[in-house]
Write a structure and sequence with these properties.
Elements lengths: L2 E4 L7 E2 L9 E4 H6 L2 H15 L5 H21 L7 E8 L4 E9 L2 E8 L7 H17 L7 E8 L11 E2 L2 E2 L2 E3 L4 H10 L14 E2 L7 E7 L6 E7 L5 H14 L4 E4 L3 H4 L1 H9 L3 E4 L4 H7 L1 H4 L2
Parallel strand pairs: 6-7, 7-10, 14-15
Antiparallel strand pairs: 1-12, 2-11, 3-4, 4-5, 5-6, 8-9, 12-13
Helix pairs in contact: 2-3, 3-5
Length: about 300
C-alpha cells in the first residue's frame, strides 16, 4: 500500500507543447540518421537552457554518446524503421523527470533509458526505466492504446539474452548495452502493427494537472485486490491515511498483517499505533527497490 498522485481536474489531453513541455528533439528516424550530431546537440542544448542553466559538459558528452549509439542501432535495422519517430529528452511532469529517448512505431512505444559508461544493470536503474514506461501507460493518452516496451541501455554492461513478456500492454524490461540495443529495437520492430496508426511526435499527448497533485491512499485486500477504503488529500500528512485505515477496519475488521512502504505517513505514530491497537502485525518494504515496486504494483495501478 502506497501513496499515488491523482489527477486534479485534468484538462483535455494536450500535446507536448505550450502547457506540457514538448520533447527537446523530435524527428523521423530517416531524418535523425542524416542530421549532424552537432545540430542535434545544439537543439537539445537550446531547449535545456529554456528550463535549466546551460548544459554541463558531462550532459553534453552523454548526449553525444547516446546519439552515436542510436544512430548505429537504427543503421542495423535499416529502412523498415525510417518512418518511425524519435523523441529525445521527453518531460514527465508527474515525476519531474525526463525520459532519455522514446521511439514511436506503429502500435508500439519504445522507452529507452541510457546509462552511459555503466558496466552493470543496477536495480535502481531498472525500476526507473520501468516506472517511466508505466507513467506513459497511465498518463499519456496515445500510449494507452499501444504496446509499451521499456529498454535499459547500460553502455558497457555484459550482454545478456533479450526478450520481453507483455503484461497489460507493457513489456517486461529489456536490458541492453551499446552493441545489443539494436537487438532490443528489433524486438520493438517485431511488435509493430501496421494496422495501428503511428503516433506523430507532436501528437504524443500528456494528461496535465491544472493545479498540482492530489494524493490518493487506498487500503486494498491483497488476496481479492478489492479496495476496502480510500481517501484523497492535497497534503502528505498522515491523518487521511489513518482515516482510510480506520474505515477499513470498521467495515471489514482488522487484518492479520498490513504491508506498506516506508513513507512517513506509514511510519508515523498515528498509523502504527492504530494498527497495534487493533492487533495487526506491521510489515514494511525494505531497501530492495525492485521488490518494493513489485509489492506495490497493484496499488500503483489504481
Amino acid at each position: 500500500m502506497s501513496l499515488s498522485p491523482d489527477l486534479d481536474e485534468a484538462d483535455q489531453p494536450q500535446t507536448f507543447g505550450r502547457r506540457t513541455g514538448r520533447s527537446f528533439y523530435a524527428a523521423p528516424i530517416s531524418e535523425f540518421r542524416i542530421t549532424e550530431d552537432d545540430a542535434i546537440i545544439g537543439r537539445l542544448s537550446s531547449r535545456h537552457v529554456a528550463f535549466h542553466a546551460a548544459a554541463e559538459a558531462e550532459q553534453l558528452r552523454a548526449w553525444e554518446r547516446e546519439i552515436e549509439i542510436l544512430k548505429e542501432s537504427f543503421a542495423k535495422l535499416g529502412s523498415p524503421c525510417d518512418d518511425w519517430q524519435l523523441l529525445l529528452e521527453i518531460p514527465l511532469l508527474r515525476l519531474a523527470k525526463r525520459i532519455d529517448a522514446v521511439v514511436l512505431a506503429p502500435g508500439v512505444v519504445g522507452v529507452i533509458e541510457f546509462k552511459i559508461n555503466a558496466t552493470a544493470f543496477q536495480s535502481a536503474d531498472r525500476v526507473q526505466t520501468e516506472r517511466y514506461a508505466q507513467s506513459l501507460s497511465d498518463f499519456h493518452e496515445a500510449s494507452q492504446q499501444r504496446l509499451l516496451l521499456p529498454i535499459l541501455c547500460a553502455e558497457r554492461a555484459r550482454a545478456k539474452p533479450l526478450s520481453t513478456t507483455l503484461v497489460e500492454g507493457v513489456g517486461t524490461l529489456m536490458e541492453a548495452n551499446a552493441t545489443t540495443l539494436a537487438d532490443a529495437l528489433l524486438i520493438v520492430q517485431s511488435h509493430v502493427d501496421r494496422n495501428v496508426a503511428a503516433i506523430d511526435a507532436h501528437g504524443f499527448t500528456y494528461l496535465p494537472m491544472r493545479r498540482g497533485f492530489l494524493y490518493l491512499v487506498a487500503i486494498m485486500d491483497w488476496h481479492t485486490r478489492k479496495v476496502l477504503s480510500w481517501r484523497i488529500s492535497n497534503t502528505l500528512e498522515a491523518d487521511f491515511c489513518v482515516e482510510a485505515l480506520t474505515e477499513a477496519i470498521h467495515k471489514f475488521g482488522p487484518p492479520e498483517i498490513m504491508n506498506t512502504d516506508q513513507g512517513s505517513q506509514f511510519t508515523s505514530f498515528a498509523w502504527t499505533d492504530r494498527l497495534r491497537r487493533s492487533g495487526v502485525r506491521i510489515s514494511m518494504d525494505g531497501k530492495d527497490v525492485r521488490k518494493l515496486t513489485l509489492d506495490n504494483i497493484f496499488i500503483e495501478r489504481l
